[in-house]
Amino acid sequence: MKWLVSLVGAGLVLLTLRDLFHTLWHPTRHGGLSRLVMTAMWRLAQRFRGRRRVVGLVGPLAMVTVVGMWAFTVVLGWAVIYWPHMPGAFAFSPGSEAAREAALLDSVYLSLVTVATLGLGDIAPGEGWLRVVSPLEALVGFALLTATVSWVLEIYPALTRRRVLAVRLALLRQAAPTPQQIDSTSGALLLDSLATEVVRVRIDFTQYAEAYYFHDGEDHSSLAAMVGYAEALARRGQTAQRPEVRLAGDLLTGALADLAVILDQRFLHTGGTPTEVFAAYAADHGRGGAEP
């Protein structure tokens, strides 16, 4: 029975490590529990009256919640591993009151101290296998801390790339380029560079799916609001006279279609055309529609 309980704890730890791996290190970032938590918080925030202000906090709060969930389940899992073998398989420092406490409380305390790599030493594993398992928890705690810092450092550059593209599209719309300006060598270069930026954002949504749950704020920095104008530019490029401009228009159209596929498969599930997906994307981020 003791080993069955310990196996349940080991299962909790492995489940957490699997979720952490798929969220942070898997090439396609198909997180399980973390994605469910983020999606639930996003949908819940959309029900509030002050929707824009609340939704703006979802991304950072969701990341904190997910990291807290990982830490909680790791601590709980290792505590369940220790619990059936407490106190007999452990050594207590002289004068320690820990041995008089409940076994579960001591197990949680030891797990917290170990995962935080504090190493207080008032409770130490006595049996051989526990002397191997306990340092492994410290390694997992260190990995969790490192992964959390890396996650934060990775997500914000991805958000910056998305907002840079949105601001660039807003400036282009404000400049209102003429058909003659689009149908030129500089127009072809413009459309080609926009296609490259769209591809980068598409990859960011693949590798950092949690970026979707960050609200971009003002309209001019919101890709959800500005992606419709990118579609309009692509159509103008496709109908141009110059072949290089038509090619660049086709590239931008293809990049936008690919972005729409990722958004629809991972977040929106409309099954519609790219224009319909972008409209759903705009609506999901509190915009009336993707602006043309």
Automatic annotation (TrEMBL):
Question: Does this entry carry the keyword Iron?
Answer: no
Q: Potassium channel domain: from which residue to which, for each copy?
A: 83-152
Q: InterPro entries this protein is in?
A: K_chnl_dom (IPR013099)
- Ranges that cross the membrane: 57-83, 138-159
Q: Quote the Pfam families the UniProt record gives.
A: Ion_trans_2
Q: Which Gene3D superfamilies match?
A: 1.10.287.70
Record bears the keyword Transmembrane helix: yes
Keywords recorded for this protein, A-Z: Ion channel, Ion transport, Membrane, Transmembrane, Transmembrane helix, Transport
> What processes in GO biological process is this protein linked to?
monoatomic ion transmembrane transport
Record's protein name: Two pore domain potassium channel family protein
